[in-house]
Design goal:
Elements: E1 2-6, E2 18-19, E3 44-48, E4 55-57, H1 64-69, E5 79-81, E6 87-90, E7 98-100, E8 120-122, E9 128-133, E10 141-144, E11 149-153, H2 164-170, E12 177-183, E13 190-196, H3 198-215, E14 220-221, H4 226-238, E15 246-250, E16 264-269, E17 286-291, H5 292-299, H6 336-344, H7 352-359, H8 361-367
Parallel strand pairs: 2-3, 14-15, 15-16, 16-17
Antiparallel strand pairs: 1-11, 3-6, 4-5, 6-10, 7-8, 8-9, 9-10, 12-13
Length: about 375
């Protein structure tokens, strides 16, 4: 277990935490005025090892060394995202001994967005140590400043990573659509509607970047059903129809071994370690990582979602007659920000056809593809 302490005075600024994988939607900005929940589970932290944030000149703007140092390989607009790395993210409720900095409370309309720099200080010595994020359309979190905190091991070790068999037996799938809450409806207060899950849109953005990178521009087909509903429309729009089609399949624990001629495998990643599942006998297929909850729903889809979950836990057999939840009234759209962030950090993003995809991304967004 880890406790983060102030680099200035050594005071504890978090509860004891154990490390998990960084969620794919950690930096997602979703919609306008949407109320998003807390990013991290209580008692956990994750490390952001990639750059995300401030703008840097791209290679075309004459700064190839800076871009390469950030692991960024292409740009479509002359500027690149690249903030400090190795920052730590926790749930807001896991902070200890901190206070808000009144003059650093920037935000769009509903809360704090952290654009003024760290807005939380160590209560003991006043050193700025973290940024509280809770503005609308952003996942609620506290990002600890890497140069202002230190990690200290405390108590017993955190939970050991579960083997895949135990993990899949205990984990629950992440539903593909859910009720979304925002401010700004015609009536005062909160406004609700059913939509595709923001997490799914972010996950699809990351996975799509890998699918394109592995395709070489050739057409890609994914399994029918929900997987095709999420990916196929965008793949068909971005990839050429010429050349042999590459085939993608779902693979992972409790699924039959994939065919040897499968080119891409959509596989789960371990939520505790971030490790990508791979076949025991190895494979030459390109592995496309998916968070376990999303992968579980694609691999073992639920029959339906109850529209109004009961207030107490009921036996599964009593939920069968609940009406299915309303489906979204629009086609699935991939998160453009997560897609762009992921693709820019893949070396193949320098290929001309992928640079063209990045250049046309605003048009794809306007068309409803993203």
């Amino acid at each position: 277990m880890i406790v983060f302490v102030c680099a200035g005075c050594g005071a504890e600024v978090t509860a004891p935490l154990y490390q998990v994988a960084l969620p794919a939607h950690a930096h997602q900005k979703y919609g306008n005025g949407v109320q998003l929940p807390v990013l991290m589970e209580p008692g956990t932290f994750a490390v952001e090892s990639e750059t995300w944030g401030s703008l840097w000149p791209s290679r075309d703007a004459g700064a190839p060394d800076a871009a390469a140092a950030l692991g960024i390989h292409a740009s479509a607009d002359g500027m690149l995202s690249g903030d400090v790395t190795d920052s730590f993210v926790i749930a807001p409720g896991d902070t200890r001994g901190t206070v808000l900095i009144p003059e650093k409370t920037s935000g769009y309309c509903c809360g704090l967005d952290g654009t003024d720099g760290p807005n939380m200080a160590c209560e003991a010595c006043g050193l700025p140590v973290a940024s509280r994020i809770d503005d609308c359309s952003l996942w609620q979190a506290v990002w600890l400043a890497p140069n202002a905190v230190h990690r200290h091991a405390v108590g017993d070790a955190g939970p050991a990573p579960l083997p895949w068999a135990d993990l899949t037996a205990a984990a629950a799938g992440t539903p593909p659509y859910e009720p979304i809450t925002s401010w700004g409806g015609r009536q005062p207060g909160l406004h609700h509607w059913w939509s595709w899950s923001p997490q799914w849109e972010a996950v699809a953005g990351r996975a799509l970047a890998h699918l394109l990178a592995a395709s070489g521009g050739r057409p890609v087909s994914v399994p029918h059903g929900l997987t095709a509903e999420v990916f196929q429309r965008t793949l068909d729009a971005l990839l050429s129809a010429d050349g042999p089609t590459l085939h993608a399949a779902l693979a992972g624990p409790n699924l039959p071994a994939p065919d040897t001629d499968t080119d891409l495998l959509l596989v789960p990643e371990h939520p505790q370690t971030g490790e990508t599942w791979a076949p025991a006998r190895g494979t030459s297929a390109y592995l496309v990582p998916l968070p376990l909850g999303v992968w579980l729903w694609l691999a073992f889809p639920e029959p339906h979602l109850p529209a109004d979950p009961p207030p107490q836990v009921l036996p599964v057999e009593l939920l069968r007659d609940d009406p299915p939840s309303p489906r979204p009234d629009h086609l699935f759209r991939v998160d453009a920000g997560v897609f762009r962030h992921t693709l820019l950090r893949l070396p193949i993003a320098c290929d001309p056809w992928l640079r063209e995809v990045l250049e046309n991304l605003p048009a794809y967004v306007r068309s409803g593809l993203f």
